[in-house]
Design goal:
The chain has about 500 residues and is an alpha/beta fold. It folds into four domains: about 120 residues, no CATH class; about 70 residues, no CATH class; about 55 residues, no CATH class; about 220 residues, 3-Layer(aba) Sandwich (Uracil-DNA Glycosylase, subunit E), CATH 3.40.470. It is about 45% helix and about 15% strand. The protein has a five-stranded mixed β-sheet, with helices on one face. Strands 9-8-12-14-13 form a five-stranded mixed β-sheet. The chain has a two-stranded parallel ribbon with strand order 1-2. Helix 2 runs antiparallel to helix 3, helix 3 packs across helix 4 and helix 12 packs across helix 17. The chain is globular and about 85 Å long. The relative contact order is 0.06.
Amino acid sequence: MARLVVLPSEADFAAWRSEARALIQADLTPEHVVWSVGSSTQSGDLFASAPSNIAAAPTSASAPFTVPARFLDLAPSVICHSEPERFALLYRLLWRLRADKHLMEVSSDPDVRLAETLAKAVRRDKHKMTAFVRFREVAADGGSVWIAWFEPQHHIVEATAPFFMRRFTGMTWSILTPRLSAHWNGTALSFTAGATRADAPTEDALEDHWRTYFASIFNPARLNTDAMQREMPKKYWKNMPETALIPDLVRSARERTRTMLANPPPMPRVTVADREAAMAKARVAAEASDNAITSLRALNALLDGCRRCPLYRDATQAVPGAGPRSAEIILIGEQPGDQEDLQGKPFVGPAGRLLDQALDAAGLPRTAVYVTNAVKHFKFEPRGKRRLHMKPNTAEIDACRWWLSHEIKLIRPKLIVALGATAASSLLQRPVKIGAERGQAIALPDGATGLITVHPSYLLRLPDAKVAEMERKRFIADLETAVHLARDLGASLEAA
């Protein structure tokens, strides 16, 4: 007789996992388990035994086994699929993994292939929900409530709602779907039964704004209707105000493209005299600033107003150096990272933590050195919610050298350690190959000594653990060399 297992909801992975663990311990084969949701009466198996608390039953002598990470990655997504047999599929995979721990690596296996297909469909459905939900404003007591209607293919509402909670924290909103509705009141996320399309508003005052925005970003020269419909299927159009414009925009695309090509935008007319006047003005401003800068505090007060290159436009803030004015060692990195840009301090992210550990191992207190960057603003490429680091170009490095030169003049260190190629090229004002010049003492024009090593972020990017450990030891050895050099130069290594 089959064992009937009733789960509390369609997408409750924790409940499925608990039941599956108990079934494995009870040594029940997949053929003897029937899965259902919500009520035992939903099961179509007339011969299934009544639901029972399997977890409370005595466990068998089945040996425990480790579930591979690939299964744990797939299972929560598979659970959210609308396929009725998904629970049985996952339990069958779990049962087979007891005998074949490498099963998930066999992509040609029918069960593995089906699980991957279901998980991929769920991930795509989640993406469509985050991209195509449109909230509409509804007046309510105490303020506005924002309501959206969406029709997901799978049971993804509970898994996707936290995205909207994080993105629209300051709004009171509801996302209504046929199966389940999500609600955020500003402090708590809750779920209620499904709704109908009639329960959601059909338009609000922002409809025209959506249409204006979409029309302004529509590029007729890059139109690809097949790709557009793959990314934005027509079934979602009825919920988005801007899609009413698509037919007319598509019809007029060819003519608009011809018009754009026939009427290119005029190029700005900049004469040699204009450039010379701008350069003279910049020199006067720099000389005035030079005369006004007598301390790090004065230098840093000017930094946030830096407009020497375009990087200031997207960065949160300029990031000055940090450390004692009396420091006799300066460490120069490339540029601020994501955390440095947000906090306004250098080397406070993952690379900074690795640097701190290496400095400790080398016997050089972080508080005894001055740390800064060759470029003072974060250069990045937006990628969803993440900001991916981009390498500064030569013009940006040259533009920022003015700030670095002032830091060096004010501190007058005995030793300058360049972390990475960007810092080294800024310091030496020439291209640098780390492998050829790493760990060597270099005489600098101002009388200080330079030393080149890798940037700690390089160590974080190494995929091989053994190679990463070897390179970490080399990095520490370079810092130990810096300590010996500093002592030979008579530098103080005492913490400030």
